[in-house]
Design goal:
The protein is built from 14 helices and 5 strands. The protein is mainly alpha-helical. The radius of gyration is 20 Å and the shape is globular.
Length: about 280
C-alpha cells in the first residue's frame, strides 16, 4: 500500500524516527564529542536542564523508597499531562519498541505481499491490568523497581549505550528480541497484553481530551479500520474512545468515508444538553 505523506502513519513514522534518534544521538555525542546535552533514555531522559521521568518508573521508585522526591514528581509532570490530553501517545508515537515494530510490519508486508497482517493469538485485554498490578506488587515485595531494569523501551536505550561505550551488547537485549518476535504471532502482542507502562498511560489517558471519534452517519461498516488497527481494536464499534486506544491514527488513514477523525472530546453532559436543546428547537 502506497503511503500518503500526509497520512497519520507517515507523520507517526517521522516522529518515531526522530524519537529514536534522540536516544541514539545522546550516547554518540557523549562518546565521540563529549556533548552531554542529551542524557538517558525513555525512562529518565534529560534534554539540557529539563528532565522527564516515566510515570510508571517514578511511581515504582516512590513505592519502593516509601517517600516522595520533588524533582522526580516534577519530571513526571510533562508525561502525565501529555497522557491526560492525548492518551497513551508515548506508546504509538515515541516508544522505540513501536519504532522497531513498525519496521518489522513493513518488512513482513514486503516479503508476504499482503496488505493486512493477521493476529493469530488473541487473549483477554484484562491481562494488561494484571501485568500492571503484578509489576507494582512485585516491586514492593522485592524492594526494587523491577520495570526500571526490564522495561523494553528502556532496554533499547541501554543496549545502544552499551554498544557505543563498550562495543558489546548486554544479555538483557534478549527481552527486546522476544517482545519484537511476538509481533510475528500477534501485532503488538506485548503492548496489548503485558506492558505495565502502557497500562499506566492508558489509565491516565482514559479521559483524554483528544480522541478518534466515529461519525456513525458517515460509517459504511466496511471494516477496513478494524483490520488496520495494530492493537486489534474495532473502531466501527466505538473502541477508539476506549482506554485501550493509543491514538495512532491508522484507522483514520484507511477510512474512505471519512467517518473517523481526531476531535477534541467534549463533556458528555454538555453534548447531551446540546442535543436536547436542538430537539426542543
Amino acid at each position: 500500500m502506497e503511503i500518503n505523506p500526509r497520512s497519520f502513519h507517515a507523520r507517526r513514522m517521522l516522529v518515531l524516527s526522530a524519537a529514536f534518534l534522540v536516544i541514539l544521538l545522546g550516547p554518540l555525542g557523549n562518546y565521540y564529542f563529549q556533548i552531554n546535552w542529551i542524557q538517558g533514555w525513555y525512562q529518565s531522559l534529560g534534554i539540557g536542564n529539563f528532565w522527564f521521568v516515566s510515570p510508571l518508573e517514578g511511581l515504582e521508585s516512590i513505592l519502593v523508597a516509601k517517600q516522595l522526591y520533588l524533582p522526580a514528581l516534577i519530571a513526571m509532570l510533562a508525561p502525565v499531562v501529555l497522557a491526560l490530553l492525548l492518551g497513551s501517545v508515548f506508546c504509538s508515537w515515541i516508544c522505540p519498541i513501536s519504532f522497531f515494530s513498525e519496521l518489522l510490519d513493513w518488512i513482513r508486508r514486503k516479503i508476504s505481499g499482503r496488505t493486512w497482517l493477521k493476529d493469530r493469538l488473541l487473549l483477554s485485554r484484562r491481562l494488561l491490568w494484571y501485568a500492571l498490578l503484578g509489576e507494582l506488587f512485585l516491586s514492593m515485595i522485592l524492594g526494587a523497581p523491577i520495570f526500571v531494569f526490564v522495561s523494553p523501551p528502556g532496554l533499547v536505550g541501554r543496549e545502544i549505550m552499551t554498544l557505543i561505550f563498550f562495543h558489546t551488547l548486554a544479555l538483557e537485549g534478549v527481552i527486546i528480541l522476544l517482545v519484537l518476535g511476538m509481533n510475528l504471532v500477534t501485532r503488538r502482542f506485548y503492548c496489548r497484553y503485558f506492558c505495565p507502562l502502557g497500562a499506566a498511560l492508558n489509565l491516565i489517558g482514559s479521559r483524554r481530551k483528544v480522541a478518534v471519534i466515529l461519525d456513525h452517519d458517515k460509517c459504511t461498516a466496511c471494516g477496513l479500520c478494524d483490520r488496520r488497527c495494530p492493537l486489534g481494536l474495532s473502531p466501527t464499534n466505538g473502541m477508539t474512545e476506549s482506554l485501550y486506544c493509543w491514538n495512532c491514527g491508522e484507522c483514520i488513514d484507511v477510512c474512505q468515508s471519512q467517518a473517523l477523525s481526531f476531535q477534541w472530546r467534549q463533556n458528555p453532559e454538555k453534548v447531551q444538553n446540546e442535543k436536547l436543546n436542538q430537539r426542543l428547537k
